[in-house]
């Protein structure tokens, strides 16, 4: 199908984008890389009256280090993040996850901010963002706010982003060098989206006791989630195969598993356990 007709404007700055969102009163939609929005428009699942193109706002591009966090401008593409020396030095797990997103074309156009703002339940970055205690930087009519990722995502394609606001950056906590992190994914064979994707970040004391553990899971339910039962089970315990296996069994307990033509809820539950166990072994053993 082709989209219904729409108008197009280009915003040159964040204040202009916010003003345009206000002017179009719910009928305008931001477009960044367009790799999630345009397919939805083609299926006429969304029919915006006007596209507000933010892709040329230079201040929303690039990566910087602020204290213990990497701040990634919302319009930074996957390919740009992948080639960034700060990402390579401080957040190799982001590069690991990005390499698992779709194909070169999608990685050249899709943006970090678009991925998070779109909140696709099968997208990869939400799981990693949860495991890395990400914070979403938002600017709107009332100024700037910073929202922890757990309060930002709350349902399929649903976020806490107000209608006339824009995501300007996503910041990720840099894991301590003595810890380990990973992102593992069971791909949908056609689209490359996560049927189940698991991000894990962990750290142990010198005598092997787990003193930091975060597990984020995507693809399995309505929305990416933090596997807090898994984390609680492991925290303070030693990293043994038995503890890891028991913890992984709790991974699917926290949300209702999704079901579609490709994977039943039982299969997703199974994948959750298997991929959580593999991720935990990688970061804890
Ligand atoms: C064939 C194909 C395969 C894909 N496979 C994967 C995959 O394996 N894993 C994965 O994670 N993703 C996948 N994607 C999705 C892709 O990564 C998207 O490009 C990305 O998720 C959205 O980024 P975008 O810049 O293209 O956003 P757009 O499509 O431009 O926008 C998406 C939505 O976010 C909003 N938005 C965008 N930027 C902002 C902002 N700064 N502030 C507020 N709202 C904003 C838009 O208004 C729109 O509602 C795939 C896409 C395609 C076409």
UniProtKB/TrEMBL annotation:
Oxidoreductase in keyword set: yes
Keyword annotations: FAD, Flavoprotein, Oxidoreductase
Coiled-coil annotated residue ranges, if any: none
Domain FAD-binding PCMH-type intervals: 1-177
Name under which the protein is recorded: Xanthine dehydrogenase family protein subunit M
């Amino acid at each position: 199908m082709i989209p219904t007709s729409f108008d197009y404007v280009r915003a040159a700055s964040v204040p202009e984008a916010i003003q345009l969102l206000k002017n179009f009163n719910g009928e305008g939609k931001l477009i960044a890389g367009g790799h999630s929005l345009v397919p939805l428009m083609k299926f006429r699942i969304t029919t915006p009256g006007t596209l507000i193109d933010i892709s040329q706002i230079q201040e929303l591009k690039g990566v910087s280090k602020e204290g213990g966090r990497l701040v990634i401008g919302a319009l930074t593409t996957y390919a740009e993040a992948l080639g960034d020396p700060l990402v390579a030095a401080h957040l190799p797990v982001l590069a690991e996850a990005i390499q698992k997103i779709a194909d070169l074309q999608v990685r050249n156009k899709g943006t970090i901010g678009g991925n998070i703002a779109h909140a696709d339940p099968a997208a990869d970055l939400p799981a990693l963002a949860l495991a890395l205690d990400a914070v979403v930087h938002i600017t709107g009519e009332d100024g700037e706010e910073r929202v922890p990722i757990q309060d930002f995502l709350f349902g399929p394609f649903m976020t806490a982003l107000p209608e006339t606001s824009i995501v300007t950056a996503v910041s990720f906590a840099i894991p301590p060098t003595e810890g380990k992190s990973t992102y593992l994914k069971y791909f949908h064979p056609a689209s490359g989206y996560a049927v189940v994707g698991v991000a894990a970040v962990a750290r142990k004391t010198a005598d092997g006791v787990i003193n930091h553990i975060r597990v984020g899971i995507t693809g399995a339910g309505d929305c990416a989630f933090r596997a807090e039962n898994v984390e609680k089970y492991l925290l303070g315990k030693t990293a043994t195969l038995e503890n890891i296996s028991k913890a992984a069994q709790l991974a699917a307990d926290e949300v209702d598993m999704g079901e579609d033509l490709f994977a039943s809820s039982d299969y997703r539950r199974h994948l959750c356990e298997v991929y959580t166990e593999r991720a935990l072994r990688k970061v804890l053993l």
